[in-house]
């Protein structure tokens, strides 16, 4: 019996070492991949549009981020055409003189916003597109050193070649915009269907794992509270899926925000994977002959690892919830805009999953402690 316990202890230590190295590897890989891409500033938009969005260079000095709000504008609906102009190093620009023109698909200029001096390169112009179709939005930025006294608030004649800057002494860039009636609603429905579908599939798989273990003869007397572990797994992996779905759109405000959300998704995924490994490592932690008679028995090594993992998940989830609440009440850290983030459906779903996750982890920690104290009082494996 002592030899058997010694071998089991070595197996558990080996599993614990693997879990520690696995988590360290996740952090190291995430840092090495994403750190080189961090830049001083990004598009400064509230979110990255899925449609009617572009980023392009103008001459060798400016880089323009441009998009519409809403992403899928409808005809006869007020739309904001948003711009964020930076230099080629990603820094904000100030005191530029710009003009915005809107052309229809047949090349006719249908609206123009005259040359205007802007204190900062982040600005928006309101416009109502008259009908469904394709449009071209042209931004012109006046070169430095030009006498502006006779240019401000003027409107030059339209151009046949939209990016032609002949006799303009300016730099021009063109964005294609699409105006539709229903595609925006279809895209939104598909996006949230994908998110909820992924969470549903995860829940189905985890339920199958739990039910298969309960039907096994060795686990027929398993504790009625064991299902909490699988709920914790579901909510952790579900929150990871939501973070993965929404991380790209936050890059328009700060690239660091997307990196943070992607890292949070990766860590939650790693937390779920490690928990799965820990659950199955418990199967071999105690003699099967003892399991058949008392399913509450748990080893000290398993309890210590589950406690560390649960504390990690609990603290991480509380940090994410706190940061979200802060960001929707106050301007988030590093934000170039002095306003809080908007509350959206994806954020509500994600934080709801994390709140339930916190409740599940607290219950699970209490349950695992009760199992360990029971083992300590009654089991002959106390020294193990």
Protein described:
The protein is built from seven helices and eight strands, in the order αββββββββαααααα. The protein has 384 residues and is α+β, with helices and mostly antiparallel strands. It has two domains: 231 residues, no CATH class; 129 residues, Immunoglobulin-like. The protein has a four-stranded antiparallel beta sheet with strand order 1-2-3-6, with no helix packed on it. β4 and β5 form a beta hairpin. α1 packs antiparallel against α4, α3 runs antiparallel to α4 and α4 packs antiparallel against α6. The longest helix has 34 residues. The radius of gyration is 29 Å and the shape is elongated. The protein starts with a helix and ends in a 6-residue tail after the last helix.
């Amino acid at each position: 019996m002592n030899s058997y316990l010694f071998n089991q202890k070595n197996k558990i230590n080996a599993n614990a070492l693997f879990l520690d190295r696995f988590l360290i590897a996740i952090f190291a890989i995430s840092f090495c991949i994403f750190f080189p891409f961090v830049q001083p500033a990004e598009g400064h938009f509230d979110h990255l549009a899925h449609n009617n969005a572009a980023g392009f260079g103008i001459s060798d000095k400016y880089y323009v981020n441009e998009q519409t709000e809403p992403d899928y504008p409808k005809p006869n609906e007020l739309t904001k055409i948003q711009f964020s102009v930076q230099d080629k190093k990603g820094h904000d620009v100030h005191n530029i003189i710009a003009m915005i023109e809107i052309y229809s698909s047949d090349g006719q200029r249908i609206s123009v916003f005259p040359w205007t001096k802007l204190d900062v390169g982040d600005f928006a112009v309101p416009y109502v597109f008259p009908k469904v179709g394709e449009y071209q939005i042209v931004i012109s930025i006046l070169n430095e050193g030009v006498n502006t006294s006779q240019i401000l608030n003027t409107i030059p004649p339209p151009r046949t070649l939209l990016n032609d800057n002949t006799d303009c002494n300016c730099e021009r860039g063109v964005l294609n915009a699409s105006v539709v009636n229903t595609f925006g609603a279809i895209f939104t429905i598909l996006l949230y269907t994908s998110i909820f579908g992924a969470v549903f599939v995860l829940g189905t798989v985890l339920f199958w794992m739990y039910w298969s273990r309960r039907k096994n003869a060795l686990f027929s007397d398993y504790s009625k509270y064991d299902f909490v572990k699988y709920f914790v797994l579901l909510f952790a992996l579900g929150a990871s899926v939501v973070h993965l779905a929404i991380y790209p759109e936050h890059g328009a405000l700060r690239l660091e925000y997307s990196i943070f959300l992607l890292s949070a998704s990766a860590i939650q995924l790693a937390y779920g994977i490690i928990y799965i490994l820990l659950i199955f490592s418990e199967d071999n932690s105690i003699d099967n002959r003892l399991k058949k008679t008392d399913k509450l028995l748990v080893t000290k090594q398993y309890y210590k690892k589950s406690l560390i993992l649960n504390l990690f998940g609990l603290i991480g989830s509380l940090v994410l919830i706190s940061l979200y609440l802060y960001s929707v009440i106050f301007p988030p850290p590093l934000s170039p805009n002095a306003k809080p983030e908007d509350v959206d459906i994806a954020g509500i779903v994600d934080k709801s999953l994390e709140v339930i996750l916190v409740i599940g982890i607290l219950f699970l920690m209490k349950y695992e402690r009760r199992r360990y104290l029971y083992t300590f009082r009654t089991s002959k494996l106390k020294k193990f």
